[in-house]
């Protein structure tokens, strides 16, 4: 879940005002102008969205987090041995960093930690918590959209450290369409350099009976997470969405092997965002997230295209989730 739909490319008719985040305004205005309305899932993760996502990870229906944690508890030592001493850990979309201590504790004298997240408040809270547990570890949090990563903070290179190790858990790679996933992995590789390691979680489940409840839980937490996007648009972009006028919907697309999240209009309505009017027909939706489910062979092929090769592979007993350890080879 915590990332990214295809970015809308059609520019809005009018430029957003300067008092708002221009990237957020641009993506929302362009996305709502499309024939099939779509907003990048990056924007689901304001502070409240990040809090709700953390609640999602603890739900009984949402298996990826506890499965990945179970795997990491059993393989962190082997990953640490592959990384070697004094590794520099770069975490993408770090969120609460709940899994991070498992990796940091296993590493031999890690020399720096560079977490990257789009939510400044959530990132600060996470780094403070990690700092109490690892008080001597230098940390350089970076508030940024890691999907646009080109360079890393100086600490990632200036520390007297060994290998750079990119930690990318949570199956966030599944939020990217395959071509965008290749592009992201290429940019990550370019930023960290040859010989770096990438630890990435990828959900391999294909059973809609398991998947749909995971993205549409009985308690309605995922629905609240999705609808929070409308609240954020109202707050930051002077919009007049009514959250009760939209319902959350999770769909399994077997052709693309992905779960989609949508906000579906309950009736015909008109919404205004930054002075722009948008009409919704009854049943029309805003596509807010994709979650692709990559099997082992498919993911390995994708990684090779992006310049990474497999070093280690770990899965749970049900083969639902995979933790890949990759090495940058070019």
Layout of helices and strands:
Layout: H1 22-33, H2 47-56, H3 63-83, E1 88-92, H4 100-106, E2 112-117, H5 120-133, E3 142-143, H6 155-158, E4 164-168, H7 178-192, E5 197-203, H8 208-214, H9 221-237, E6 246-253, E7 258-265, E8 269-273, E9 276-280, E10 285-292, H10 296-305, E11 308-315, E12 321-328
Parallel strand pairs: 1-2, 1-4, 2-3, 4-5
Antiparallel strand pairs: 5-12, 6-7, 7-10, 8-9, 11-12
Helix pairs in contact: 2-9
Structure description:
It is a single chain. The chain is of the alpha/beta class and 330 residues long. It has a single domain, classed as Rossmann fold (3-Layer(aba) Sandwich), CATH 3.40.50.150. The chain is 35% helix and 23% strand. The protein has 10 helices and 12 strands. The chain has helices at residues 22-33, 47-56, 63-83, 100-106, 120-133, 155-158, 178-192, 208-214, 221-237, 296-305; strands at 88-92, 112-117, 142-143, 164-168, 197-203, 246-253, 258-265, 269-273, 276-280, 285-292, 308-315, 321-328. Strands 3-2-1-4-5-12-11 form a 7-stranded mixed β-sheet, with helices on both faces. It has a 3-stranded antiparallel β-sheet with strand order 6-7-10, with helices on one face. Strand 4 (164-168), helix 7 (178-192) and strand 5 (197-203) form a beta-alpha-beta unit.
- N-end to C-end Cα span: 29 Å
Instruction: Return the CATH architecture.
Output: 3-Layer(aba) Sandwich
* Overall tally of domains: 1
Name the average pLDDT. 91
Helix percent reads 25-40%
Structural class per helix/strand content? alpha/beta
Radius of gyration: 20 Å
How many DSSP H or I helices? 10
For the sheet with most strands, the description reads:
7 strands, mixed
Q: What's the name of the CATH homologous superfamily? A: Vaccinia Virus protein VP39
Count of extended strands: 12
> And the CATH topology?
Rossmann fold
What would the principal axes of the Cα set say about the shape?
globular
Please report the first level of CATH classification, the CATH class: Alpha Beta
Taken as a percent bin, the fraction of beta residues is 15-25%
Order of helices and strands: HHHEHEHEHEHEHHEEEEEHEE
Q: Which regions have little confidence, pLDDT < 50, spanning 5+ residues?
A: 1-18
Strand order of the largest sheet: 3-2-1-4-5-12-11
């Amino acid at each position: 879940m915590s990332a990214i739909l295809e970015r809308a490319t059609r520019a809005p008719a009018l430029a957003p005002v300067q008092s708002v985040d221009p990237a957020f305004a641009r993506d929302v205005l362009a996305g709502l102008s499309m024939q099939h309305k779509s907003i990048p899932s990056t924007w689901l993760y304001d502070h409240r969205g990040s809090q709700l996502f953390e609640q999602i990870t603890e739900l009984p229906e949402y298996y990826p987090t506890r499965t990945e944690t179970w795997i990491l508890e059993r393989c962190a030592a082997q990953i640490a041995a592959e990384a070697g001493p004094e590794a520099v850990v770069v975490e993408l979309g770090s969120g609460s960093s709940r899994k991070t201590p498992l990796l940091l504790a296993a590493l031999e004298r890690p020399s720096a930690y560079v977490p990257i997240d789009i939510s400044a408040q959530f990132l600060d809270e996470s780094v403070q918590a990690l700092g109490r547990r690892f008080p001597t570890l230098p940390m350089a949090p970076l508030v940024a959209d890691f999907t646009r990563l080109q360079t890393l903070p100086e600490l990632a290179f200036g520390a007297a450290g060994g290998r750079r190790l990119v930690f990318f858990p949570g199956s966030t790679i599944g939020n990217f369409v395959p071509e965008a996933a290749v592009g992201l992995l290429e940019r990550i590789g370019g930023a960290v350099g040859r010989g770096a390691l990438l630890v990435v979680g990828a959900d391999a489940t294909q059973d809609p009976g398991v998947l749909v409840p995971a993205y549409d839980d009985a308690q309605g937490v995922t629905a609240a997470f999705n609808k929070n996007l409308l609240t954020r648009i109202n707050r930051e972009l002077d919009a007049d969405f009514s959250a009760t006028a939209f319902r959350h919907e999770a769909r399994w697309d077997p052709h693309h092997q992905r779960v989609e999240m949508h906000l579906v209009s309950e009736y015909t309505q008109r919404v205004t965002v930054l002075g722009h009017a948008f009409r919704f027909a009854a049943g029309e939706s805003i596509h807010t997230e994709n979650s692709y489910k990559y099997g082992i062979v498919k993911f390995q092929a994708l990684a090779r295209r992006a310049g990474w090769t497999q070093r280690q592979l770990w899965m749970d007993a049900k083969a639902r989730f995979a933790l890949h350890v990759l090495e940058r080879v070019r």
